[in-house]
Write a structure and sequence with these properties.
Helix content: 25-40%
Radius of gyration: 29 Å
Shape: elongated
Largest sheet: 8 strands, mixed
Strand content: 5-15%
Number of strands: 16
Length: 551
Amino acid sequence: MTASTSKRSSAYSATTVPSEWDAVPCVQYGFPEDKGPIRAPKLKTIFEPVPEGAHTASPVYLLTPEEYDRQDEFESGYEISGKRSIGKELQDTCEGDGRVFYPVHIESDVYHEKDAQTLIDWFREFTDDRLGVPFHNCSCYFSGNRSIHVHVPHFVHGEEQRERLKKQAEAFCEETGAKLDVSLYYRKGLFRLPGVTHESSTLQKVQIEPEWEHDRIISEATSVCTEPPASYAEVLRDVFVHRGGVTSPTAQSPKEEPHAEIHPHLDLDAAVLELVPDEREVETPLIEQREYPMNTFDAPGWLMYNAKEFSPYAYASGNPRSVAVIQVKGGAFARKGRRNGAPMVPVWFIGAIGCDGSFTKETEHAPLQLSEGNRKDFEKWSRQGYQNGDYVVIVGGQSRSSIIFSVTRTEALQAGYHLVRTEGSRKAALNYLSNRGYDVGASGSTSTTASRSGTATGKTKTIWPARENQGGAEALQRKAEHEGIDTLSHNERIRVACRLLRYGWEPTWEWFKERFGSSFKPEVTHCFLRGIVEESSFEEYNHIDVPALPA
């Protein structure tokens, strides 16, 4: 084969991510120890150029645009509490949310102990019989030292599938005597990039054909000069599209296919393996397990039911209110002998600070305790019907009747950031949410009585214009603001008034006055709002005094 010194195409090394994408595919690069950190502290998109000196790359992590941009806030990438890197924090989050795609690799490092064909036979049997993938669709490489690598044109998606791949490789080795490197199948694994020079032998990782013998392989490694890939997207293109043929008929739109951005011509449904567990496996449900799981993949699910719960009400007397920003991970449960059987919800805490400020949670799984009783939190939670995956804010305190409302993913991440960052606080998080138009109630100690004007400070709150693409009363508010108050029925106006009165009497009065314009009738509106405030079933308006009818 003629030596090649031509540079690879850089068509896939653009750094611009289309604005309509809701997921940014990224990897972490690894370096030899004598050339800097073993792992880069920040993640890069798969379309950016491979950093100089990088030898390995991680699985693909689908970050949100906000998560990706957040990396710019850190100069080195290591300014994270607990001496972690921002890259590791984002990897942990993606693992917990099921946003990791693991390229399937196979490796054996006994090349110099066994002949090449023995390793190829192992690889062929594993892919054909255990994975159900034709071996001829795979790409084989000599690592440059003592291993043969196989790049399979498939991903496994999420931690459960990764663990199943690991178990299948372990079972295959035990049953056949094959020597596969099963350490590849752990989280955050790094795998050598094609074309890089091995630091021990000074030979490159080069592509080979399965029928080649030892002499032909070494000849290829010593005579061919191959440029490393321009980007990781180029690696995926070569393995999945050019060799594996896992393509879609036409380029997919990221708006229609959320993960099409991994490669515009990649059929992700066809590229993801679905490994079926051994039917003989009978697992004890995590909620019934009492010991911390040995398998780290099971830890988040176990912690959601067994870690120390977060109580929005503990040490509330004389202290500021607690704040928790969470993502719901399951339905409510109770445990005999724990908090007297109080209702709990398995959640992922983006951030939380208890009433006394000492008990905190940050990016961790644990139960959330809810109070029981008439108009208490469990009743509110059940009435709202929160589902798995919803983002929710809970502002708790001494009354054991918290303010609970749902937010968008972006708002949850931002509120959590304001809550737990180095200079963050409950006040900063609540100010952010208030500025977004949410009613967070009165600030300060829960033992302080709110002023009769509707806030603890006596200042009039602002009613912001309703947001797009919202439901319920906010959608009706937006309709009135854009199409006129006359488009709402009487009952719909009541729903809007109930929403606005959380901000107080005066801003609600002014909103209706502006909507009706010249046809505004003070006596009718006064009677209408007073009927809501003085209704005995509406306890949330007890802090509002009904003023006299304006002259």
